[in-house]
Amino acid sequence: MTETKESVFETLSKIDVSDHINVIKMKNGFNPKYVSWSWAWNYVKSHYPDTPTPKFEKFPEMVLKTRLQEYNTKYGKRYKKVVEGWEMTGRAVPYLTTTTGTMVTCNVHIDGKDYTESLYVMDDYNNAVIDPDQSQINKTQKRCLVKALAMAGLGLNLYAGEDLPMGDSSEQDKKKQEDRHKKPQII
């Protein structure tokens, strides 16, 4: 009898990441949940040790010339960057800059399959950032890595707004799920 091996997605989507959830505090009230890139990468490497280092797609570098433009909101004056021009340098960099924002694309190759995702650099209001600094790009790369791992199944339920994994990997996970779905009895 031939034993069928579970796919990467079947394996990773059963993992309960609820004990590893963090929250990004945004200024607009939207507070997305996530798992840290180091925990997610450690978990994948411990189950798939031959997984190579993630690759970030490279793009032609565009240097923007920007200025701050003042505008009024009901909360007072704010400033936004406005693009006045740009220059192509001829170098390749691991992010794509456009006049409307910057994004990164991450590819993870696990057990013979590629999982690719893109993510834009965002500010504390979840808006695209024009001309971000390297710190903002690096944070976006790490979040994009976690998003690519979610495409492979790890923590995908967080993007669906669910706290529970897509499947059950153990009896302990089944018990947790049952406990969470129990409703208090009103007498």
The proportion of strand residues reads: 25-35%
Count of helices? Answer: 5
- Relative helix content: 25-40%
Query: What shape does the CA trace take?
Result: flat
Helix-strand pattern, N to C?
Answer: HEEHEEEEEEHHH
Q: Please tell me the overall pLDDT.
A: 86
Report the strand count.
8
Rounded to the nearest angstrom, the distance between the terminal CA atoms is: 53 Å
Instruction: Specify the biggest β-sheet.
Output: 4 strands, antiparallel
Low-confidence stretches: none
Radius of gyration, in angstroms, nearest whole number: 20 Å
Q: Which class of secondary structure composition applies to the elements?
A: alpha+beta
How do the strands and helices of this protein lay out in sequence?
Elements: H1 8-12, E1 21-23, E2 33-35, H2 37-47, E3 55-56, E4 59-73, E5 76-93, E6 96-98, E7 101-110, E8 113-120, H3 134-151, H4 156-159, H5 171-181
Antiparallel strand pairs: 1-2, 3-7, 4-5, 6-7, 7-8
